[in-house]
């Protein structure tokens, strides 16, 4: 793999496997290549005896801008939707706890990674939005992990409006574990990893499996239905028009 196509990096220090999203040209959008490399990194961490904890983060401030709309506009979203299901399932079913660090905005599909993670720490200036409704879509695939994290009122509010909300609200609704001042984020992440290092590997593995059971059953029972819904909406005339308008505004 050449340097130009490396969108996800992997490193292990002090029993923490750090997986870094590094695709700044499209704000870490969930392109087919990025998702594939992220899945590969998760598999590597699962098999790595030097790693007891997985940390997912971004190289730049933007954590993830959601689906790669250029790829989506070219069609074939059934495969992309299934890949996003697989990514969420890989995080939920991972044998090691997954900590996610958010230092910048998270939108749409990126929130599936957030919801699938075990511990999520974010700086208090991070913003979130389920933007799908504004693009003629629905947060279908990510609903597999997001909906169980939220109250029904919070899901209806944020899914239907597509509005931007802040870190304090994200923590209050259960989407993230804690929001801390930006200057304290790295210390909070290190403390979370240190707390996890205190646990026995078997205790971590078995406790995570216990917590993940209901979520995995939800993913497995609804995955195909949600992937089909996502593909149908991405392929609709309304969504194609809305996505094209959005990309034009971004260029302007």
Task: Offer a few descriptive terms.
10 helices, globular, 15% strand
How much is the average pLDDT? 95
Number of helices: 10
Give helix % range.
40-55%
Strand order across the biggest sheet?
A: 1-2-3-4-6-9
Poorly predicted runs are none
Give the overall shape, derived from the CA principal axes.
globular
Instruction: Please give the largest β-sheet.
Output: 6 strands, mixed
End-to-end C-alpha gap: 33 Å
How large is the radius of gyration? 17 Å
Q: Quaternary state, please?
A: single chain
User: Approximately what portion of the residues adopt beta-strand conformation?
Assistant: 15-25%
Number of strands: 9
SSE order in H/E notation? EEHEHHEEHEEHHEHEHHH
* Structure classification: alpha/beta
Commentary on this structure:
Helices cover 50% and strands 15% of the residues. It contains 10 helices and 9 strands. The chain has helices spanning 32-47, 69-73, 77-92, 110-116, 143-146, 152-161, 167-172, 185-197, 201-234, 237-251, and strands at residues 8-13, 16-21, 53-58, 98-102, 106-107, 119-123, 127-129, 165-166, 178-180. Strands 1-2-3-4-6-9 form a 6-stranded mixed β-sheet, sandwiched between helices. A 3-stranded mixed β-sheet has the order 5-7-8. Helix 3 packs parallel to helix 4 (110-116). The protein is globular and about 50 Å long. The relative contact order is 0.14.
Write the layout of secondary structure elements.
Layout: E1 8-13, E2 16-21, H1 32-47, E3 53-58, H2 69-73, H3 77-92, E4 98-102, E5 106-107, H4 110-116, E6 119-123, E7 127-129, H5 143-146, H6 152-161, E8 165-166, H7 167-172, E9 178-180, H8 185-197, H9 201-234, H10 237-251
Parallel strand pairs: 2-3, 3-4, 4-6, 5-7, 6-9
Antiparallel strand pairs: 1-2, 7-8
Helix pairs in contact: 1-3, 3-4, 3-9
